[in-house]
């Protein structure tokens, strides 16, 4: 049997890959292996490896790597620890293929270790551009260490080819997160309110704010601009989800906790909603606010607006329902008022999501099944654009 190993490091990326993992596990000629690492194993971030197990999966290896530090030094050391632990996991599991999604530093560690072990990598969601975070450089680096590529749009496919990857290995399949929306039975309103211990009885905003890791201004100062803007909507309820384990992430969590404590009747915060509760929330909130990739990729498929703050997602294709704004109190307040407008409600309801294609996860599985020997993918030649 071919051993296909999925490396997952956060609640967000696991939520995107869960359906694909079930499909891989269902193939009788494949053995699914799972390595859980980074925030999955952290009590501070909700011990989200439990969600993987609750979904019926067996985690083959848990790789501790996350240091309790918000500094660049801590993030760099966590990446190094991840590479050490993942090397031990690869040595033990001997996978035939590694499957990675996205652009975070734990995925950089996973791809780097796989490169040295000569294990081919299938990379999902390459070719994007996000100019406000160092994830951008990480994503393109992983592309160069990968052998099969599954971007979410034709623009991103062409960018991967521009990076020197052979077109025969690059497949435009759409976004897994949007695919999940079409296949996951979502919670009804009463069931969701019980799961959240929070009533959605008036207009509600779902807020996720991550540090802009290439921004010179402190993330805390940016978040304060957002919180002051939210003060302008005292009759609106706010659901906060915590940021990822990026530089200054814990400082953001501290400010969110203070804000929720000061407004307990209309605000709640969650270290992790998990993919089911998160997607279910999108059925009932008025808009999504912040700088998460989900606001650009998945939210448009629910027909609601996204207020996208700052530069973290700069460069990504965006639906007409996404409202870009600067990270200032006045700009954010104005963007939220636009999101609440009847005109934007009509726009969002009729928007086309550029990331949506039919049955993305199944198409990835079918393409993987066409590979008779993953090891043949390892030798690569740089594909020069003059060949086009």
Automatic annotation (TrEMBL):
InterPro entries: UDP-GlcNAc_Epase, UDP_GlcNAc_Epimerase_2_dom, WecB-like. Residues 25-369 form the UDP-N-acetylglucosamine 2-epimerase domain. GO terms for biological process: UDP-N-acetylglucosamine metabolic process. Keywords: Glycosidase, Hydrolase. Its EC number is 3.2.1.183. Gene3D superfamilies: Glycogen Phosphorylase B (3.40.50.2000). Coiled coil: none annotated. It is an enzyme of class 3 (hydrolase). CDD domains: GTB_UDP-GlcNAc_2-Epimerase. GO terms for molecular function: hydrolase activity, hydrolyzing O-glycosyl compounds. The keyword S-adenosyl-L-methionine does not apply. SUPFAM superfamilies: UDP-Glycosyltransferase/glycogen phosphorylase. This is UDP-N-acetylglucosamine 2-epimerase (Hydrolyzing). It comes from Candidatus Gallibacteroides avistercoris.
């Amino acid at each position: 049997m071919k051993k296909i190993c999925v490396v997952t490091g956060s609640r967000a990326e696991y939520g995107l890959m869960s359906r694909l993992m079930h499909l891989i596990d269902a193939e009788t000629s494949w053995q699914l292996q799972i390595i859980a690492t980074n925030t999955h194993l952290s009590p501070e971030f909700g011990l989200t490896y439990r969600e993987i197990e609750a979904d019926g999966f067996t985690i083959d290896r848990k790789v501790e790597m996350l240091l309790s530090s918000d500094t660049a030094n801590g993030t760099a050391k966590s990446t190094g620890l991840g590479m050490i632990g993942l090397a031990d996991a690869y040595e033990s599991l001997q996978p035939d293929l590694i499957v990675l999604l996205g652009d975070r530093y734990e995925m950089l560690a996973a791809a780097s270790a796989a490169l040295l072990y000569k294990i081919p990598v299938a990379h999902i969601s390459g070719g994007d551009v996000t100019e406000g975070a160092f994830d951008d450089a990480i994503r393109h680096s992983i592309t160069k260490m990968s052998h099969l590529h599954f971007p979410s749009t034709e623009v991103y496919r062409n960018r991967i080819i521009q990076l020197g990857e052979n077109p025969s290995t690059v497949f435009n399949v759409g976004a897994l997160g949007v695919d999940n929306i079409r296949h996951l039975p979502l919670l009804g309103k009463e069931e969701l309110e019980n799961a959240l211990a929070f009533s959605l009885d008036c207009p509600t905003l779902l807020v996720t704010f991550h540090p802009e890791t290439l921004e010179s201004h402190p993330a805390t100062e940016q978040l304060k601009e957002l919180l002051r803007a939210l003060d302008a909507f005292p009759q609106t309820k706010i659901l906060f989800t915590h940021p990822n384990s990026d530089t200054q992430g814990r400082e953001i969590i501290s400010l969110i906790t203070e804000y929720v404590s000061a407004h307990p009747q209309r605000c709640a915060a969650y270290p992790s909603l998990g993919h089911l509760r998160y997607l279910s929330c999108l059925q009932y909130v008025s808009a999504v606010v912040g700088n998460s990739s989900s606001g650009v990729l998945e939210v448009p498929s629910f027909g609601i607006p996204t207020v996208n703050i700052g530069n973290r997602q700069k460069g990504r294709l965006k639906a007409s329902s996404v409202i870009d704004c600067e990270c200032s109190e006045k700009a954010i307040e104005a963007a939220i008022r636009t999101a609440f407008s009847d005109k934007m409600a009509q726009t969002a309801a009729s928007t086309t999501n550029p990331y949506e294609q039919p049955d993305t996860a199944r198409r990835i599985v079918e393409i993987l099944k066409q590979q008779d020997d993953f090891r043949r993918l390892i030798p690569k030649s740089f594909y020069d654009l003059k060949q086009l």
